[in-house]
């Protein structure tokens, strides 16, 4: 009887293992099929024959808080309670780690510890690239044969992508200088001429004025873009690194960019100490 019992257990165990293998195989095939379908997708065309990316798009993740894996943490403003708490999230950095040079890693930690004072977004400064893409605000893409305009709701930021252009910016700017080209279904944007005044997120990830970003916008379905940005900065990072995330089309009938003129929201924060004070 004991031998039969043991044999039954072995048979059940083998059956369970085979079932698990089959299930894993099914999911693997399904994943490969999904990737293949995404790569095979052909977007509708504009009148000049290019993939049509026109529309209002938005990221749905927590990358604006931290590009890397992170747990939820309390609000730096106690009075905000749970409403000001920072949500946890899965990272969007390929490989998980940002390759900081040793001195730069120390500055990043210092930024994190002083986020509420140092983050340029807190003061309504322009968000820079790529951060403008994954802030919790929508943005709009408008295409023409010669240029692509990208308008962002936050602070009414905008930039022009010069298609097939070779020009460079005469000065460094918050949003950089963008030259674009098409590689099949993908809009590739090469961005240079940044100042050093923007961050990548609220976790203190930052860059210098040597920043170079190459973005890729690839349609994977009627209402989805896959966004990739390869980031290079010899003064801060030991090698180039990449972020990757989906972007979603806003499909509600009245979708539009609204005004978010944030300057008025920070006047007291930035200039309140200059107000003339009267007393008895």
Entry summary:
This protein is globular. Helix content is 24%, strand content 23%.
Q: How is this structure best described in words?
A:
- 24% of the residues lie in helices and 23% in strands.
- The N terminus is likely disordered.
- A nine-stranded mixed beta barrel has the order 1-2-3-4-5-6-7-8-9.
- It starts with a helix and ends in a 9-residue tail after the last helix.
- The protein has 280 residues and is an alpha+beta fold.
- It folds into two domains: 40 residues; 213 residues, no CATH class.
- The protein is built from five helices and nine strands, in the order H-E-H-H-H-E-E-E-E-E-E-E-E-H.
Topology:
Elements: H1 2-40, E1 55-59, H2 102-113, H3 115-118, H4 131-134, E2 139-143, E3 147-152, E4 158-163, E5 177-183, E6 186-192, E7 212-221, E8 224-232, E9 241-249, H5 263-271
Parallel strand pairs: 4-5
Antiparallel strand pairs: 1-2, 1-9, 2-3, 3-4, 5-6, 6-7, 7-8, 8-9
Residue ranges: pLDDT <50 for 5 or more in a row? 1-15, 17-24
Oligomer: single chain
Mean pLDDT: 88
Helix percent band = 10-25%
Number of domains: 2
Estimate the strand proportion: 15-25%
Largest sheet features: 9 strands, mixed, barrel
